[in-house]
Amino acid sequence: MSNMPDKPDTWLLALAWLSQHAPTLYAAGLSALMAAVRIIYGGGTRRQALLEATICTLITIGLIPVLEYFGLPQNLATAAGVFIGFLGVKKIADLADRFADFKLPGRDSGK
After folding, report:
1. Reduced to 3 states, what is the DSSP secondary structure of residue 40?
2. Which residue ranges does UniProt annotate as crossing the membrane (predicted)?
3. Do 27 and 60 meet the contact criterion of CB atoms below 8 Å apart?
4. Could you tell me the sign of the dihedral formed by the alpha carbons of 85, 91, 96, 102, in that order?
5. Helices 76-87 & 46-69, crossing angle to 10 degrees?
6. Angle, helices 22-41/76-87, rounded to nearest 10 degrees
7. What is the longest distance spanned by two Cα atoms in the chain?
8. Distances (CA, A) of 13 to 8, 19, 51
9. Under a CB-based contact definition with an 8 Å cutoff, are residues 57 and 32 in contact?
10. Which residue blocks in 1-111 are alpha helix, DSSP H?
11. Residue 108 per-residue DSSP state
């Protein structure tokens, strides 16, 4: 098995990519950690913790373009990621459903 070539350009590109995406990676990691700890603290299984952490991470990563759209700094994603991990998927889904019901008329309202 050959080792990774020790080319300065390779390390420079890898470090540049990491520094450019650090806020995203940090926010996603903290969101996953918070969700997993919350599930384990509540008596859940490892599988539940892993799934909850994965979904919270994906929600956090999806939030970053929204922050950019509103002109907010990417570093705000860290706080939002921890908040998402703390609330959990079910609470975020309930909040999204309430927001959608408030903003979008339902099918039953036309009767």
Report:
1. helix
2. 12-37, 49-70, 76-93
3. yes
4. negative
5. 140
6. 20
7. 70
8. 9, 10, 32
9. yes
10. 8-20, 22-41, 46-69, 76-87, 89-103
11. G
pLDDT tens per residue across span 33-53: 999 999 999 999 999 999 999
Of the candidates 58, 68, 70, 72, the one whose C-alpha atom is nearest the C-alpha of residue 27 is: 58
Side chain identity, residue 84 = I
Judge whether 35 and 83 are in contact, CB under 8 Å.
Answer: no
pLDDT in tens, 48-107: 999 999 999 999 999 989 999 999 988 898 999 999 999 999 999 999 888 888 877 766
**Contacts by residues 45-53 (CB-CB < 8 Å, ≥ 24 positions apart):** 52/88, 52/89, 53/85
